[in-house]
């Protein structure tokens, strides 16, 4: 891999970003992290990361971070494209780097996420006609989504959540990052729309059980009914259409497991990490 790549990572202090930054640094790239001013999570970034202050809702604040970069590991940390700056941001990105790896969603892959409302489909649509060598990482759920069970497991050992029987092929955030990093550093995956998943099919209830085994306590599951779950999601800030989409998707994958792929193995040459290994790494969050 080239030693001379300079790569900008957006949303770098979320679940995926720290893995992307660390892997890029390890491969010898120069890594820039786009962070909001006063980001309290900036300490999660490894030493050697170049910090650039910028806000994805204010395109002009991205200029310094994009100046001279070869690639962007792009994450769009908003539910929708109500953030009307998306076209200006993508225009700026498309004018500079050679390569972009964009973390998209399985919802686009299966046609559930329509362009007019959803960020993933819309950002893909903006990037697709540009001259950039883009790679779309259409991912199923993150294994880290199970952190949403942590408070309940710690407090009561019971997870109350909708659709325990929904069967997921959740991906480890480090594997997702590795696919994007490989695409950015090798240039070998231009214009690919990859479905990025883990290698296992596990229901949400099974994920909770595995967490219980890892931390040494029984973990039970109680399904929250669809309408109550929708009300809670909307109350916590989800746009109603997004809550409906997520719950409809859970219902679908209760009937038939969500799609899986071998992209992690194929692109990185390593098997996808298991959910149990993720739970072991994050056991403290559940104790
Ligand atoms: N979770 C899933 O199952 C799933 C599935 C499919 C696709 N995805 C995609 O994966 C992406 C990455 O997820 P993630 O969990 O790693 O991260 P995330 O929670 O989406 O993003 C968090 C990061 O975004 C930064 N951020 C927030 N507002 C910003 C702004 N206005 N300008 C610049 N940065 C801003 C945050 O900074 P602060 O620390 O300062 O807040 C933080 O670094 C998501 O955005 C989503 O599109 C997720």
UniProtKB/TrEMBL annotation:
Which positions fall inside the NAD(P)-binding domain? 13-184
Tell me the Gene3D superfamilies matching this sequence.
NAD(P)-binding Rossmann-like Domain (3.40.50.720), UDP-galactose 4-epimerase, domain 1 (3.90.25.10)
Q: One Pfam family of this protein, by short name?
A: NAD_binding_10
Could you tell me which InterPro entries the record lists for this protein? Ergot_Alk_Oxidoreductase, NAD(P)-bd_dom, NAD(P)-bd_dom_sf
What is the name attached to this protein's record? NAD(P)H-binding protein
Provenance organism: Streptomyces thinghirensis
